Amino acid sequence: MLSMSDTELGIIVLSLKVAFFSVALSLPVAILVAHVLARFDFPGKTLLDAVIHLPLVLPPVVVGFALLLLFGKHGPIGAWLNDWFGIVIAFRWTGAALASAIMGFPLMVRAIRLSISSIDTRLETVARTLGGSRTWVFLSITLPLAIYTFVQSPGGDAQATRLSLIAVVLSIAALITSEWLTRRTSKS
Fold first, then answer.
1. Which domains does the chain have, with CATH numbers?
2. To the nearest whole number, what is the mean pLDDT of the chain?
3. Secondary element (H or E) of residue 164
4. CA-CA distance, 108 to 23, in Å (whole number)?
């Protein structure tokens, strides 16, 4: 019925690869930054928050150009990565993963920060008074509670399931329409 060429399969695999590495690159850093922003007050906190949200307010072309300047073969970070490790970022799938990670980073930080902020700090305080280190408290109490809050949708699982099903139906309808139009134009 619907078959895909090797090129189309390659595009899907590339998209999944970029998405996976984008999340893998940005998620650990986003968790730590969100924790710092949610639980600590320090000079420059507002400035840090503003810098983190820059990719959301700047035009994508500006962010892309800045990444190209930094991670291109002649950029300070790109030249270092190329000279020392033989890693080329610009115009490769790694560059797409890095750009996706940077563009999605503020959204991750914001969602995780809100999740961490919603956790009662008394739980962490009690765990610390019972002898838990800051790291242990974060890994065993804060992070699991934040993940639970983070993965929950505002309307619960039922709403998330409905929205997912609607997205799947729309995608299938678009694919079938595309195939139908392709066949129809090829007959003409």
1. 1-117 (1.10.3720.10)
2. 88
3. helix 156-187
4. 9
